[in-house]
Every structure is written in structure tokens, then in C-alpha cells.
Amino acid sequence: MARGIIADDERLMREQLRARLAEVWPELEIVAEARNGEEAVEAVRQHAPDLAFLDIRMPGMTGIEAARAIGDTCHVVFITAYNEYAVEAFEQGAVDYVLKPAERERLELTVARLRKRLGHPPSDLRELLSRLAQRLDGEGSMPAKAGTKLQWIQASVGQQLKLIPVAEVLFFTSDEKYTRVQTETLEALIRKPIKELVEELDPSKFWQIHRSTIVNVDAIAGITRDFRGRQLVQVKGRPDKLEVSRNYTHLFKQM
Predict the structure, then answer these.
(1) Looking at residues 230-244, what average pLDDT do you find?
(2) H helix runs in 61-203, sequence order
(3) Which of 20, 67, 175, 213 has fewest C-beta within 10 Å?
(4) 126 shares a domain with 172
(5) What pTM, to 2 d.p., does this model score?
(6) In the chain, which residue ranges form alpha helices assigned H by DSSP?
(7) Are residues 137 and 236 located together in one domain of the fold?
(8) Around Cβ 148, how many Cβ atoms within 10 Å?
(9) What does pLDDT average to over the chain?
(10) Are 29 and 141 found together in one domain?
(11) Which domain holds residue 187?
(12) What pLDDT shows up at residue 60?
């Protein structure tokens, strides 16, 4: 039976990856979870696992730094929300990766490759880790130009926490101290304000149309005007009509 650890600073991501691994690799025993790189290194020392799933971006010691400290003790799998890291690492053939949130089909491919690698010594990652480390700033975050746009949202739905792919979001709108996240099938709440979301979303796919509203461009069904002459965005498949403030009317001049 293979043994592994999971290191991610987000509890929900650890739980989601553990659940997905249980589905696609029930023989794998997760012997420890870690919230940062230091805990990951200690968990490897204590449990001597075959595999370490390491989030690239963690506070304090990053996943890359943890992988360097772990060395050839076990096989490394990077967890990342950013394809730029994952593709570079994977193309070297030395490690595999899991994109957040962990999707079953992609994880099945990762598991198939890991099963084959378990019969061989872990690869020497020193050169690869040096290159990846250069792409991290001093705090372990990704340079702004390298595709840091959100790919998923961790949100509250009733008493549960959900991972929602950003591509499925129709719009975001302020709701008192929360921000409402609306998809075709559910409504959720997050604490991140609109002004922060605007910086993290892809501007070609999400437009801010009001100080309290961001809309997915693909979700726009059309534009109407109310009796006061204000522009309103009609959302595909929903009754919602989102007001466009004067500062953003230029976005719809071609419509």
C-alpha cells in the first residue's frame, strides 16, 4: 500500500484532494496533512511516505522550498492553480501535478503515472526546483504577469463550503458585508469585496459594470434601459437585471 501526505494551507483543498484520491486510488493511505512547507517536511521525516502532494504557494516555506528540503526522500506531486508552473514542471518528466480544484479525470492520469514511478527512485529535482523558485517572489507568490487570474472560488452555500469554478460564475454583486456569487445552479457568499475580485479576475472574461457588480461577459444576454434611461444587463437564463453605472456604459457601445 502506497503512503502519502498532503500539504496545502487551505483546509478545503486538503479535504477535496483527499476525497478525490480516495475515489481514484483507494489503496493510497494519506498518513498526514500539513498547512505549510515546514509541516510538510516534518511530516515526511516522521512518516517516511512514498508521495508528497505539495501546494506550490504556501505561507512561510513554499512547496518548492519544501520539495528541496525533502530531496529524494519521496516522490513529489505539486498542487497548483496555475498552469504555468504545472506545465513547466510536468514537461521535465520529473514530477506530476494536480490543478486546483482536483478534477477526477485529471487526477486519474496523475495516479496512473505515480503508480509507475513508485517502483523507481524519486527523480533529482534540484535543477527544476531552482528554475521554479526563480518565478516566485520573496513571499512565495506568483509574479503578476504570469497568469494569476482566479480559477475557482471557495464560497459558503448554506452551512457548507464549496469550490466553484470561476468560469461557471454568471455574476458577482455586493450583498452588505458579503459578495454574492451566482451560477446557473446555486447562489453562494464570499467575504472578498468587489474591488479585490476585479484585480484577480480575467478582465477579458469579467467586466465590472458597477462599483458593486461584476458580470461574466459570456452570461450577458442583452442590454435594456429602464424608465429612467439607465442601462441594465440581462443575464442569460435568469430574471436578474444588473444596473450599469455611468462609468461603465462605454463597455456596451458596440452592443
Answers:
(1) 92
(2) 63-70, 83-91, 104-117, 126-134, 194-200
(3) 175
(4) no
(5) 0.58
(6) 11-24, 37-47, 63-70, 83-91, 104-117, 126-134, 194-200
(7) no
(8) 16
(9) 83
(10) yes
(11) 152-252
(12) 84
150-173 CB burial, b ≥16 within 10 A, e <16? bbbbbbeeeeeebbbebebbbbbb
- Sole residue written with cell 526522500: 73
Indicate the number of domains in the chain.
Answer: 2
**Cell numbers 502506497 correspond to what residue?**
2
Distance CA 206, CA 219 (A): 10
Same-domain status, 86 and 198? no
C-alpha 68: how far from its chain's center?
A: 23
What is the pLDDT, as a whole number, of residue 30?
Answer: 96
State whether 77 and 178 are in the same domain.
no
Name the domain boundary from 121, 146, 171: 146
**Residue 49 cell numbers, joined:** 511516505
pLDDT value of position 233:
94
Given a contact cutoff of 8 angstroms between Cβ atoms, the answer to whether 26 and 72 are in contact is no
Quick: pLDDT tens for 142-166.
433 344 577 888 777 776 777 788 9
Whether 99 and 106 have beta carbons less than 8 Å apart is answered as yes
Per-residue pLDDT, averaged over 213-241, amounts to 91
